[in-house]
Specification:
The chain contains 10 helices and 4 strands; from the N terminus they run H-H-H-H-E-E-H-H-H-E-E-H-H-H. With 264 residues, it is mainly α. The chain crosses the membrane at residues 20-42, 62-89.
Length: 264
């Protein structure tokens, strides 16, 4: 590959990353912060410090409740897996809820997105774009609250050791459930080649993991469903996300039932 070709490839990658950040700034920032925390607590002078995670008996430590969602895992493999999940599923949810961001090419905006602008066309401030008028930010914050409340309610006995743990597994599944609730395609592929119904994605994923993440999947479903219902989240087609998902799940169940009946 020549020097000019390498520059073109590098430029295309940079443009894709910029466009991804424009449409999903919160998800991209979360992935970056998670990687930085992992490096900081494993590869640097901070490695001797205890990792800031969550535990029901330590729920009074508010910083732990927040940072517990940013620690992506205990190992590098866990962190890489979480980053991949964020980029695949969470960024898609953020785009579906907020709309596409600006499309940039050759350093110029070739198409204005919708999430940086008010309905009258005026630009949002940085705080409005990322916080006060960012639907995905509000949804994720609500999911944090539901997950912390669930973990605290299921808290360990008073005599058990307070061993903090990361909360990102449940958050990860909550995002995957939201991805399924707002799926804009009937089918998708698992591992790049296994065709499955989009509404069944989290179930298939936990099955491949031999149900090791079943508890996190259940907590994630509860959080996603509660937030969807309370906030009346809608899909890009205007339908209520949770009601649409329930209807689709019934259709899939009926289809499976007919298939089994034919095989008898």
């Amino acid at each position: 590959m020549s020097e000019s070709e390498r520059r073109q490839v590098s430029k295309r990658i940079q443009e894709r990353l910029v466009n991804l950040f424009e449409s999903a700034p919160i998800s991209c920032s979360q992935a970056a912060i998670g990687v930085i925390l992992h490096i900081g607590f494993t590869r640097s002078a901070c490695s001797f410090l205890p990792r800031p995670r969550y535990h029901p008996r330590l729920a009074w430590r508010l910083y732990g409740n927040v940072i517990g969602f940013l620690v992506l895992g205990a190992t590098t493999f866990d962190v890489v897996s979480r980053v991949a999940s964020i980029l695949l599923y969470q960024t898609a949810v953020e785009r579906r809820l907020n709309g596409e961001g600006d499309q940039i090419k050759n350093g110029k905006t070739i198409k204005n997105g919708v999430e940086k602008y008010h309905h009258d066309g005026t630009s949002k401030t940085l705080v409005q774009w990322l916080v006060t008028e960012n639907l995905f930010f509000k949804v994720q914050a609500a999911i944090y609250v539901v997950l912390v409340a669930t973990e605290t309610a299921m808290g360990a006995p008073a005599l058990s050791p307070a061993t903090p743990y990361t909360m990102v597994a449940s958050l990860d599944f909550a995002m995957r459930w939201l991805w399924a609730f707002t799926a804009d395609q009937e089918s998708t592929t698992l591992l790049g080649f296994i065709p499955i119904k989009s509404v069944l994605l989290p179930l298939f994923q936990v099955t491949l993991q031999r149900f090791r993440s079943a508890q996190a999947m259940a907590k994630g479903f509860i959080a996603a469903a509660v937030v969807c219902q309370l906030m009346q989240l809608k899909r890009t087609d205007g339908k209520l996300a949770l009601q649409w998902y329930a209807k689709k799940l019934q259709e899939v169940a009926k289809t499976c039932g007919r298939v089994f009946d034919k095989r008898r």
